[in-house]
Write a structure and sequence with these properties.
Elements lengths: L1 H17 L10 H16 L4 H14 L3 H10 L4 H9 L7 H15 L6 E4 H16 L13 H14 L1 E2 L2 E2 L1 E4 L16 E4 L5
Antiparallel strand pairs: 1-5, 2-3, 4-5
Helix pairs in contact: 1-2, 1-3, 1-4, 6-7, 6-8
Length: 200
């Protein structure tokens, strides 16, 4: 989804600044993104009035979407051979079972003891990401925050929360100390994870 949104923004920005359509021949969102990124890199490597306006216009267009902004931030300026490495380290590339296993394992580790424990969501997800990185053979864990990895992380965490519902309560539950839990937050913010060892 992030690649589609980013390609759409790149095409709109290109049309606005360069004043001609950005024609892409690739079909998959990831391949289209890589192709668009290459076209941007080619144009930006030349010093012209148009190239001077292109990147600022793109960055400005991405500022309201943390996932798109994060993807552009991680891939712009990266050597062409390294772009694949960056995009391969993505939550969308992680098999669901690896994510679910990492969430359950983190919950079990954190909930050792008798009573209920409450952990900041950011801290909880950092442990999850470390386990995913180890399983995937990545040198570094994915960052936790308002970025392109958060929506998928949120989806899998929410699924595990629902699976943990036993005897009228949850073993893993997301809570918000400042009101209701948003359906689709852009990042962990002040959210917490409540763990009940008796239901894990």
């Amino acid at each position: 989804m992030t690649y589609k949104k980013t390609v759409r923004l790149m095409c709109e920005t290109w049309l606005e600044v360069v004043e001609e359509p950005l024609v892409l021949v690739s079909t998959s969102p990831l391949a289209q993104f890589q192709e668009a990124l290459q076209r941007y890199s080619d144009l930006l490597s030349g010093k012209s009035e148009v190239s001077g306006r292109l990147k600022p216009a793109l960055i400005d267009g991405a500022k309201d979407d943390p996932a798109v902004d994060d993807l552009l931030d991680e891939t712009f300026g990266v050597a062409p051979g390294e772009v694949r490495t960056v995009v391969d380290r993505d939550m969308d590339a992680v098999p669901p079972q690896v994510c679910l296993k990492a969430i359950w394992a983190t919950a079990s580790e954190r909930a050792r003891g008798e009573g209920i424990i409450i952990v900041p969501l950011k801290e909880f997800l950092r442990s999850v990401m470390a386990k995913i990185a180890a399983e995937m053979g990545w040198q570094n864990a994915l960052r936790v925050g308002d970025n392109r990895h958060f929506p998928r992380s949120w989806q899998w965490l929410w699924e595990v929360c629902e699976e943990s519902y036993i005897n009228d309560d949850y073993g893993i539950r997301i809570i918000n100390t400042r009101g209701p839990v948003p359906a689709w937050p852009t990042g962990p913010g002040e959210l917490r994870v409540r763990l009940d060892p008796s239901r894990l």
